[in-house]
Amino acid sequence: MQHSSKIHNVRYELRGPILQAAKKMEAEGQRILKMNLGDTAPFGLQAPESIVKDMIHHIRGAQGYSDSKGIPSARTAISQYYQTRGLMQIGVDDIFVGNGVSELISMTLQAFLENDDEVLIPAPDYPLWTASVTLSGGKPVHYLCDEDNQWWPDMADVEAKITDRTRAIVIINPNNPTGAVYPRHILEQFARLARKHSLVLFSDEIYEKILYGDVEHIHTASIAKDICCLTFSGLSKAYRMPGYRAGWVALTGPRAATAAYRETLELLASLRLCANVPSQHAIQTSLGGHQSIDELIRPGGRLREQRDLAHRLLNEIPGVSCTRADGALYLFPKLDRKLYPFSSDEKFVLDLLEEQKILVSHGTAFNWPDPDHFRFVILPSTTDIEEAVRRIAAFLAVRRHAAGTAGVEGTPADADAAADTLADSRV
Prior knowledge:
Blueprint: H1 17-27, E1 33-34, H2 49-58, H3 72-84, E2 95-98, H4 100-110, E3 118-123, H5 127-135, E4 139-146, E5 152-153, H6 155-160, E6 166-172, H7 184-197, E7 200-204, H8 220-223, E8 229-234, E9 247-252, H9 255-271, H10 277-288, H11 293-297, H12 302-316, E10 320-321, E11 330-331, E12 334-335, H13 345-356, E13 358-359, E14 361-362, E15 374-377, H14 382-403, H15 412-424
Parallel strand pairs: 1-13, 3-4, 3-6, 6-7, 7-8
Antiparallel strand pairs: 2-9, 4-5, 8-9, 10-12, 11-15, 14-15
Helix pairs in contact: 1-13, 2-10, 3-10, 4-5, 12-14, 14-15
């Protein structure tokens, strides 16, 4: 059997060859320090007990199919949640529940795109968006986010890449992998471009509750009430239940303009019968109950402390700079190409894995154009973060020495000792 030609340009390197290499090393008995995926479960960040109990309570009544759009209690809770945040136009009929946001991204794009339609996607991005546009017959076009301006989108670049084939703009806010949270004026500019060019907005807001400091998350749909907008969110991150696969999309904008599209979404939702029914029963309890994520992101909270520590230690490595994340679960550090002239960031990550037994994700996997970034997950404990940065520092110190550049001098063993000193400076 031969694979479909639709797959030719599809990539999802977060679970690609480097992860397979790590699994092979683990099978050989080596312990890998994993800083690569945003799965909360392996790091002891578990779903709130009240939500788990509520799912168990409903499990016997969740054995059959549900309505293809989702059970009424879940969709009502989602609608009411958005209404409390000023989105009064979102009603129960505007909600589609899915097996996580991932399924809904694919479904909504399949219902929308014709072959060769262009969709603007941020660089860096969450690569599922790029892959799903391609699988739906569309053409992903990446607009740049500006690292020197808090990783906010370069709006001049966004507009420059709009053509007569452009149909939509994807907004990932808070962003994965940079952790950027977009202010009102950025969202207003997106809305103006959508109005000007008759574009649809796809707003991925799965990290909307994971915010640090005084930053505010603003729903794109609240800025663009007159525009066709799809808002994606779910329980995976804020409620620490990625394996339960509970996500949703809310469709807003002029009803006359979205009527045919809504019918197509209902058709595709029906073809997959329904979303996981037991996990749908977690939605009402999650959105209406105690928001335990607040305890993790406030000063002194686990996620806040881990973000602060990782940000500080990474910036202490010579030739590494890292913009502080205002949201989400990641940092996206940059390597100085003069000190570290890696021609392939994938090889950098693979060498780091083989030599230091630490797994991170390379920046080009997120459709960043240059091989000079990597994604660092802040979910592990402070002890593991300290150890991970120590190993990265040791690896890079050896590379600086080998390249004969300014930095740690002497033998590789000397470089390791210097890296140890750097990591010990955390206190």
